[in-house]
Structure formats: C-alpha cells, structure tokens
Input
Amino acid sequence: MDLKEYLRNRQGKIEATLKDLLPAKDTYPEILHEAMGYSVFAGGKRLRPILCLAACEAVKGSLEEALPVACALEIIHTYSLIHDDLPAMDNDVLRRGKPTNHIVFGEANAILAGDALLTLAFQIIGEAGLKSAHKYETYLEIIKDISIAVGSLGMIGGQVVDILSENQEIDLATLKYIHQSKTGALIKTSLKSGALLGAGSKEQVRQLVLYGEYLGLAFQITDDLLDVLGNAEKLGKPVGSDNKNQKSTYPNLFGIEKTKELAEEAVNNAVRALQDFGSEGDVLRSLAEYLLIREN
Amino acid sequence: MDLKEYLRNRQGKIEATLKDLLPAKDTYPEILHEAMGYSVFAGGKRLRPILCLAACEAVKGSLEEALPVACALEIIHTYSLIHDDLPAMDNDVLRRGKPTNHIVFGEANAILAGDALLTLAFQIIGEAGLKSAHKYETYLEIIKDISIAVGSLGMIGGQVVDILSENQEIDLATLKYIHQSKTGALIKTSLKSGALLGAGSKEQVRQLVLYGEYLGLAFQITDDLLDVLGNAEKLGKPVGSDNKNQKSTYPNLFGIEKTKELAEEAVNNAVRALQDFGSEGDVLRSLAEYLLIREN
Output
C-alpha cells in the first residue's frame, strides 16, 4: 500500500469535516472563531483522527460514521496545544512554523479559544451520537472514555507533572507518566473510539488499545529524538526547545543510540499487538513503521 | 415554604455529591486536584445545580437522578470563574472572599484546573448517562445542549465580548448579548437539563427555559446593582471591581432606580412563565423573588 497517498486521502476527508464542524470565521464574536480556526487549520498531521478512522476500519466499521468523533479528537489535541504554548506554560512563540495562538490573538483569546474547542469537541460527539439511533450507548461510552483520557488523570495530569518537572532531574517512572498521560492517553483513546464506533469485539478493542499504548510510546520517544536531531524547519519550532526548559527526555536519560533502540522496540510491540488482524490491520502496521522513519 | 431551609437542604445534597464526584485532593498530581477542589468548595451559592434539581422536580422527576448533571453544571460554572479571574482576563485576586485560584496555585495550574473541571463535567454526564439505560438519548441531548450553552456561541462568546468591551462604551444590544451569553446561557441550560432529566413535556421544557431566560436576566441586573450598592464583605470581592475595569453595566446605562425596575420586571416575567405549573412550581417562583431581595 502507498501510505503517503493514504494519509493524503484521510487528511483531505478530515480537513473537509473539520471545516463543516467549526463555526465560520465571521461568526460573532469573530476574533474567537478566527482564533479557533487559526490553530485547527495550522497544518497538523491529523495523526489522532487518522488513527481513529483506521481503528474503525480495522474492525470493518464505516469510515464516514467515525469522522465526527475523529475530528473531535483533533480539536481536543488542538486545544491542548494552544494552552500548552501559553506564556504561563511552555511560553512558545512558534508552532508548526507559525506564531502561536496567543501571539496572534492575545492571551485571553487564546485561553478562551482553547476552552471553546474543548467544549466544541463534546458538542460534536453528542450531536453525532444523536444522529445514530442504534448507538447511543456507544457514544456515551466514547464521551466517558475520551474525557477520562484528557482529564486530570490523563492528558492534563501529564501537563501538570511536565511543568512541575522543568529544571528538575526526574526518574524514568515520572518521564513515563508524563508521556503516557500527556501524549499517550489521547492516542490510546483515539484508537479505542474508532474501535468502539466500528463495533469491534472486546478482544479487538483490547488489541487496538494495546497497539495505541505502544504507538504512543514510540511517538513520544521519536519526538524527543527529533528535538535533538531534527532541524527547526522540519519541526516548525526551535530545535532544543525542550532542552531550553531543561525538560527530561529519553535522549537525556538514555543517550541517543539506546533511545533509537527503545523507539524501534515500541514500534515492534505495536505491530505485534495487531497479530490477530489480517490485511485490515495493514494501515495501522504501516503507520507504526512510518513513525520510526519520519524526518530522520 | 421556607426557602432558606430548602436551599440549605439542596446545598447539602449538592456538596455531598460534588465530594463524591471530584477526585480526592491527594490524588496524583496533587496540586492539580487541590486546585480543582479549592475552587469547587469555595462556598458558592450552588444556584445552577439548585435550578437544575428544581426544574427536574417541577416536572415531577427524581431529584436523585438529576444530581450528577446538576453538579456537572456547578463544575462548569467553577471552571469559568477560575478562567475569568486569570491575569489575562479580569485579573481578580479575590473571589468569594478568598484568594483566586491562580493566586494560590499559580497561573499554569489555574488554567489546567479549569480545563480539568470542564472535562470532568462531561465525564460525569457521560457516566451518569451510562447508568440509566432507558435515557441514553436524553443524556446525549443534555451534552449537546450544555456544550452549546457554554461554548463559543454561548458562555465563552459572552466572555470574549465582555473583555472586548472593557473601557468601551457599549450599547444595550451588546450588554444584553454579554449577559445572555456569559451568565444567561448556563442558567437556561441548567433548567432545561433538569426538565429533560425529569422527562418533562415539550411545553413544560419550553416554559422552564423561558423562566430561565428571565431569571438569568434578573440575576445579572441584580449582580450589577450589588456591585454598585453592595459591600465588599457581602460580595467577597472589591466593590466596584466591574467599574474598575470600566465595564458597562445596567446602572451605568440606566441609573439605579430604572435598573431596580428592570430587575423587578424580569422577576415578574420569570414567575409568569410558570403559570401552568401548580404547587410543584413554587420553589422556582420563590427562587425568582428571593433573587430580587438578596443582600439589598
């Protein structure tokens, strides 16, 4: 299969659905809706919605039905980036090569645009659920699962510990907690949501969640690597910006060679989790391997 | 009926349910869960959950069943207060007589505690929905309705326009937009949620929503009045703090006497909206009248 072509196709569908789901830029109050759209359409890879759609298809569910939830996951990811970049948090001025939201719209609007995106995500899932009469319970499960994944015991908890760990030496357990919570939980729930929407069996859901755990780990480790090895152009943010804030990373703890090995091991484990899937698991397998070679 | 006794009883139930629903303070990461609890248990009046419960009872629904959603509404209200108080927004240092969240926990934790509370609210509603097998659709409707009410076209939109209007002369239409969006929308959806949970008829839901619109208006007008006439001790924040930021208010636009008349008119309209309700509407009637005389 041609993964790049596949990704372009999925990104196109996600882009179009996001355009439908976000209020138009000229909706009152305009500055808020501009700020929301600015970050949602800032050129992300759309990894989380792609994983959601791929999980749905892996259990032979309908791609179209999973699109709103997939986009809601991307919208949640976007809100988290806007808030992470704030002066009170990572204080980043560039994201994906563009000025961050608060640089363009001011801090108050950036905070509120993030709040509005998080709220919109739940609205989208609620509305999608109401449209699919036979799956009300599934949508409530998804709302529960996503909110736990991105709440105080998940993504937000990870961000809090990440901030607490700045300029501190942290141990591997803490680094793992940060990664699993801050990045891993949303990736994992993306796969679970897709699997649930596609009406996968309990065992299929379990395997896709396991795949998601290893994929999230691989993703974070390669992100750490890119931050050391990459260049600012590819990353869209200053190289070493994590180092700037003295954040603990895999390369800091293990060195570059061992970190590469750990990334490879995580990808292999992700692929292994899909062993019961036939060709319908190929996209997810390719995605995991693609992660390892992206940009380096 | 003894309204004060009624309110104490309801506040007690809400307090106990909130304690059950919020993660314990010593849950990791502790500072986040402390920050969440600090503002949720800072002594609010619990108006929104009380309205939700009262609307549910007005259509003869079960109080117990409405408690989780009622508490989710209070949690959303709390998140909005934490974010409104931030340095980038109203920059308030006192709320209900206590230091605001960012003063105690720092700006980053205050932003994240707000985010976590908003997320928790949707988790609570999703979980409550999953527990009541015959009402999945109702819970999805409530999620949709609440997220619209507190999203970019509702509460958050109102906050954006409020901030834009600082140090500006605004017209009555803009003042009304701010009130209806920033305060009114959440109050209205509190009544609607309760009515839906109690399985009220379409007409009952419509009337309770109308009551909510007038009540929200009355509430905001008297809030403006209290800011001029009240004292810091009663309000728990510096008197004239809205004036400090040169915010447009009803007293600014109409003078104090006319503002009092407008508040009275809104309360009368709220009570009139309940004319089809028998004694089961008494609590809501008393609440509307109580609003007018609170602290002045």
